[in-house]
Amino acid sequence: MDHRRRSVGFFCLGIALFWAALYIYVPILSVYAQSLGASLSLVGLIVASYGVVQLFLRIPLGLASDRLGRRKPFVLAGFLTVALSCLGLALAPTPELLVLFRALAGLAACTWVTSSVLFASYFPPQQVVQATSLVNFFSSGGRVLATTGGGMLAQRFGWVSTFWAGAVLALLGLVAMARAEEDADPVRRPLAWHDVARIGRVPLLVMTSLLATLAQYSSFATTYGFIPVYAAGLGASRADLGWLTAAVQIPYTLVALAGGHLSERIGERVAVVGAALIMAATTLVTPLISGLGFLALTRVGYGVGQGLIYPTLMGLSIRAVPQSERASAMGIFQAVYALGMFGGPAISGLIADHLGLGTMFLVTGGLSLGMALLALWGLRTGEQTLGSSEPARTASPGKPEV
Predict the structure, then answer these.
(1) DSSP string, 176-207
(2) CATH code at 146?
(3) What are the respective helix, strand and coil percentages of the chain, to the nearest 5?
(4) Chain-centroid distance, C-alpha 319
(5) Neighbouring C-alpha atoms within 13 Å toward the C-beta of 144
């Protein structure tokens, strides 16, 4: 048990540094791209490139991890990829090259498939939602510190300093994560693409993936896409941009920590529907806001909704599959929701260019309302299916699940 506790500790430190490295420059990325001459459509493409890579590579990565029976090698490779991405962003002379190196960050983020499954393996199967809530707490905690510090760093030392800082954080995280232990799966069996197709038809996985796609669309269209652009138009400084992103990440972190217990207490469906409604309301009012203070307040509310919805969906996505197939299931879940990470900023950039930022926020808020309706109907169906899927969570003979 002691080595498990040590592994959990090193993992939590490492994953916090990983997400800090990925997000320390995010508050200023859109505005920095504009300073290099990027249009709103190109800004949307830069932000979207992070998701498009994950759309295509998360499933193969999860499949490869399940076939190998190991998670840690993929996780460590992710840290090195983050460092390379940050170095490329720091040295990119044109906004078009930002697309390439932000896409490389998306490649690194693909390893969230294996890192989240590795962390879940430290806990009993009945605690999977609590485990995903805990890992989301530390990943979000890293983003809180990074986005707050990144804005102040850019204010004091210039835009590019945030990219250099990201590379340093990634290397520190690599050292910490290398200390986390992993047990190879002795009863693994090779998985093929037809196994992925079978896993991908699990009703609860299908529904949670669709809902997460809409949630990510909203998040990447607003928090990581055009809220910074909107705030800059209201007179926000570089430090203000960091604080606005932190206004989402701080409540996300706090709510994510308690999200597993809260979802179990009120029910996963109620939690997801309520969270979607909060995200919709705080997005729909954005075009009416003319001051940074009220904008920050609405972002706090948005963070509450996001902190409740994402860990709940993430935990549900792998609940109905056995341990030996969870990386593949998580890969499917995260690959599908990467559609939202790509589509959110890409489509929103086009809407903003042609119809204005206000219309873009209204469209995004309307999609969040649709997410609430889908959860109201779909997760009830998923809960019914979940009851018949419980045997899938039983450990394989001769191997206790951890």
Answers:
(1) HHTTS-----TT-----HHHHHHHTT-HHHHH
(2) 1.20.1250.20
(3) 85, 0, 15
(4) 19
(5) 18
Structure tokens at 261: 């217990």
- For residue 185, being part of any structural domain is answered with no
Given a contact cutoff of 8 angstroms between Cβ atoms, the answer to whether 231 and 151 are in contact is no
Q: HSE (CB half, 13 Å, CA atoms) of 102? A: 29
Q: What are phi and psi of 90, to 5 degrees?
A: -65, -30
DSSP state for residue 321 in the 8-state scheme? S
Give CA–CA dist 356/359, Å, rounded: 6
Q: What is the DSSP string of 290-317?
A: -SHHHHHHHHHHHHHHHHHHHHHHHHHH
The letter for the amino acid at 244 is L
Q: Can you tell me the distance from the alpha carbon of 53 to that of 191, in angstroms, rounded to the nearest whole number?
A: 22
Number of domains in the chain: 1
Residue 244, domain member (yes or no):
yes
pTM recorded for the entire structure: 0.73
pLDDT at residue 5 in the model: 77
Identify whether 396 is part of a domain: no
Residue whose C-alpha is closest to residue 108's, from 75, 62, 142 = 75
Which pLDDT tens digit goes with each residue over 274-325? 999 999 999 999 999 999 999 999 999 999 999 889 888 887 887 777 767 7
Range of the domain at 170: 2-180+199-388
- pLDDT tens-digit series, residues 175-201: 999 988 886 554 455 566 677 788 888
> CA–CA separation, 124 vs 318, rounded Å?
13
Q: Considering the domain boundaries, does residue 194 fall inside one?
A: no
Question: Which residues fall within 8 angstroms of residue 224, CB to CB, at 6 or more apart?
Answer: 26, 29, 47, 245, 345
Cα 64 to Cα 56, 125, 158, distances in angstroms:
14, 22, 40
